[in-house]
């Protein structure tokens, strides 16, 4: 019993250590997302995404990269865009970009796993969207798309109103006191939607790092096998582990760091990270939004896209000699605390988070919904 309690204590310490390393970047990402949501309206996005040409896909990718990193929120926004007239491919491109190309995800990957994974995630996000667009065009189910667009769905608990500041120019919006209130409200809403996913991701990674031996992970991911076997096998196994772990959004980065230190291949880590859009709770949301046939279609296309993109990135980075060496001491490093730049950044951004949450509490979202949504 004493040994079990000791391991639980180590797992909790690991969980906190991982959060400590990336806490400030989470606040930065939520604040930037809140800013974008406050100045860019969904109506404007819908009007610009009605076709599935290259321009619309590129625009959807840029808008997704600048939006929320919460998988549930992104799925809700994608549903709104799609059902209000946006074409399917740009809608899906927005969904992939908003969970793979956001700034805070890259920062957290850099801090926990190195710049190579940050670059691979961002470049891989573009590869994901290119492969996805090609697959959807080749398999486009016209009747199924129309059924999905008209499918009635219950209100999701993860969806919010997407309030946008009114005003003429971008500068007028940015200089308006009302915009700061909307940023705070969007910040609080995103945080309220994502904190359970983040907590779950850190806890799962913390406990797995202590209770699951590296040898088990190494055997599961075929460490030591021929790259011709391990690389494609890991690209398939990565999403499967993600699906059954229930961890989505940027909450799966700590888990990815543990897997990388335990023997999974470079491409396997990437496919695991990409798979935050096909975890079981999100698959159920797709079913409620679009019907089960469309949900199955999306799940299959997403899975194939993630595996292919992971293989492309693994081959590309391996050929360029950019695959880093795993860090076997990551467990020890993330539990070391000192008065370094991480401490001061966490202190500064904690103050920002408190300010935004206090402003949101002072100005509840319901008070401004009808006056400031386009």
Estimated structural class? mainly alpha
Instruction: Give the helix level as a range of percent.
Output: over 70%
Head-to-tail CA distance between termini? 58 Å
Radius of gyration: 21 Å
SS element count, helices: 19
In short:
By secondary structure, the chain is an all-alpha fold.
What would you say this structure looks like, in words?
The chain is mostly helical. It has one domain. The chain is 75% helix and 0% strand. The chain contains 19 helices and no strands. α1 runs antiparallel to α6 and α14 runs antiparallel to α16. The C terminus is likely disordered.
Can you tag this structure with a few keywords?
globular; 19 helices; single chain; mainly alpha
Helix-strand layout with pairing:
Elements: H1 2-39, H2 42-48, H3 54-65, H4 71-83, H5 88-100, H6 103-113, H7 115-139, H8 142-149, H9 170-175, H10 177-211, H11 214-220, H12 227-245, H13 253-262, H14 266-274, H15 280-290, H16 292-319, H17 330-333, H18 341-362, H19 369-372
Helix pairs in contact: 1-6, 1-10, 1-18, 2-4, 3-5, 4-5, 4-15, 5-7, 6-7, 6-13, 7-16, 10-13, 10-18, 12-14, 12-16, 13-14, 14-16, 15-16
């Amino acid at each position: 019993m004493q040994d079990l309690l000791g391991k639980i204590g180590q797992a909790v310490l690991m969980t906190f250590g991982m959060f400590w390393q990336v806490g400030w970047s989470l606040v930065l990402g939520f604040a930037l997302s809140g800013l974008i949501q406050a100045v860019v309206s969904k109506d404007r996005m819908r009007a610009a995404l009605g076709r599935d040409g290259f321009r619309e896909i590129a625009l959807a990718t840029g808008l997704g990269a600048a939006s929320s990193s919460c998988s549930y929120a992104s799925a809700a926004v994608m549903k709104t865009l799609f059902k209000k007239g946006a074409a399917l491919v740009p809608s899906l491109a927005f969904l992939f970009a908003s969970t793979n190309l956001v700034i805070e995800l890259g920062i957290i990957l850099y801090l926990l796993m190195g710049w190579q994974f940050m670059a691979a995630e961002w470049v891989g996000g573009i590869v994901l969207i290119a492969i996805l667009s090609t697959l959807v065009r080749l398999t486009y189910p016209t009747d199924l798309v129309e059924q999905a667009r008209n499918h009635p769905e219950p209100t999701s608990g993860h969806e919010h109103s997407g309030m946008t500041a009114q005003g003429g120019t971008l500068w007028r919006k940015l200089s308006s006191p009302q915009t700061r209130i909307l940023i705070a409200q969007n910040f609080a809403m995103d945080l309220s939607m994502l904190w359970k996913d983040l907590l779950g991701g850190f806890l799962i990674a913390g406990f797995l790092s202590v209770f699951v031996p590296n040898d088990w992970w190494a055997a599961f991911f075929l460490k030591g096998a021929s790259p011709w076997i391990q690389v494609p096998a890991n690209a398939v196994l990565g999403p499967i582990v993600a699906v059954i772990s229930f961890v989505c959004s940027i909450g799966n980065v700590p888990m990815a760091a543990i897997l990388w230190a335990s023997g999974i291949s470079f491409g396997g880590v990437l496919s695991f990270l990409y798979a935050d859009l096909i975890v079981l709770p999100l698959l159920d949301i797709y079913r409620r939004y679009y019907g089960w046939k469309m949900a199955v279609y999306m799940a299959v296309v997403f899975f194939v896209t993630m595996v292919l993109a992971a293989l492309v990135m693994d081959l590309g980075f391996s050929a360029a000699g950019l695959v880093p060496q795993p860090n076997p001491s990551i467990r020890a490093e993330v539990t070391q605390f000192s008065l370094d730049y991480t401490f001061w950044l966490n202190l500064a951004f904690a103050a920002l988070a408190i300010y935004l949450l206090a402003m949101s509490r002072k100005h509840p979202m319901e008070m401004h919904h009808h006056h400031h949504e386009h």
